[in-house]
């Protein structure tokens, strides 16, 4: 159902509700669709082998002629990462700030999509027209430069979308969240506020990014050997502070990690870094300098198995970690990564490094607003309707409770499911049906070709292994070779001869009976082999390996 008049506006979340990641929201008005953000979500443990999770955009594809453009809040993966996959099917204008588009341009280039896409830059504090939508880009503080909230103007009032923000009173670049603009919108009348719920469990205010600078200064001041700093490659303010400390303490900086190298290159080209020409050296030059004269700035703060920091903790990286080196893990663990991060930190300590990490010091601060800042955003904008976003369900419920305390009417607070169409009018808001929504799995070059059956098989393989039965038959269904049993991840064959021999005998009996009854249909033979082994293997081992009969004909 499309939106065809000025009396109402429809909101449809396709991601970022009940989850952290995969952010995408649709605004429908005057039979036009405006898309806000298009992010990815990183797979959880149950998604074996999956690389990325992106939103289901089948509704957009069915209504492609109505889609007027995509507006982006900032350059984090959970807000722009799905675009290379989406733009292969939906080629529309993209609007964002200079850094956001700079990071996106590099992603599109790697997917050979840059020539097909047209990117339109909007500076913070300015507005643009997207179809009949007027969109204000409002500067906010976050853990990446050039982040913005959006005000999407409608005849019923502005829709304010503030998915990632905080109020930093002493930001690195001196550019604060534009509090005056939010207050101005509140005076004019805000129809709906969509607000960041990530830190709703934290009381008070989120600390300033400058606090990290103090901790880094202490680390540099007390370090006598190499300094290794692991951080998110997108946190330009954090990277700039590392550069500043290196200049102050007369150290050279080497970069490690593809995203770190790419982002520093992009940041320097776009003017986001102030770096002396001779500060950055190639990583191959690091041994040309005394250990107390170098800093290694890298990715790997999430304990990724192949990341430089993780490999150094294991001792299998070309740059060795020596006793007395200082390692600063300047990031917090993304949900699901805590175990890997903890293991890496343990290994770093075991190697003799002095490790500084979030649990012990102010080496990282969040980019998201805490409870008092969330109240401030509500009080500045004074919305008629409120949607907590960018959080798991507990975050959304707590944020909804906070909004009630601030004065938003209970009936005007919405916690929709993905795909719900919420219609907002001057008098009321209500749910009116749903559109297809959910997750599309990206696995290698495949997009959407991994479904529940494939995931079930991967889970089964990871938990119980596989047992293959190889049989060769002739055109009359007579066995000419086999059965041979091969296992992987189930049992060690040399230590389980009796089990394998007994299983082989059971298959031989099944095949003999099939031969007597002239059964030659492969699907029937495979089914009977599985039936013969399934309950038997579980009874003997209390495990259910995947049983894969392989029949060849000669």
UniProtKB/TrEMBL annotation:
Biological process according to GO: rRNA processing
Entry binding sites for Zn(2+) 2: 78-79, 164, 390
Ligand binding (substrate): 233-235, 364-368
Keywords: Calcium, Cytoplasm, Endonuclease, Exonuclease, Hydrolase, Metal-binding, Nuclease, RNA-binding, rRNA processing, Zinc
UniProt cofactor note: Binds 1 Ca(2+) cation per subunit. Seen in 1 crystal structure, it is not clear if it is physiologically important.
EC number(s) from the headed UniProt entry: 3.1.-.-
One Gene Ontology term, aspect cellular component: cytoplasm
Subcellular location: Cytoplasm
Major subcellular site: cytoplasm
Molecular function per GO: 5'-3' RNA exonuclease activity; RNA binding; RNA endonuclease activity; zinc ion binding
Cofactor: Ca(2+); Zn(2+)
Positions annotated as active site in the UniProt record: 196 (proton donor), 368 (proton acceptor)
Superkingdom, natural source: Bacteria
Residue ranges of every copy of the Metallo-beta-lactamase domain listed in the record: 21-216
Binding annotation for Ca(2+): 49, 51, 443
Record text on subunit structure and interactions: Homodimer, may be a subunit of the RNA degradosome.
Function: An RNase that has 5'-3' exonuclease and possibly endonuclease activity. Involved in maturation of rRNA and in some organisms also mRNA maturation and/or decay.
Protein name: Ribonuclease J
Species of provenance: Halobacteroides halobius (strain ATCC 35273 / DSM 5150 / MD-1)
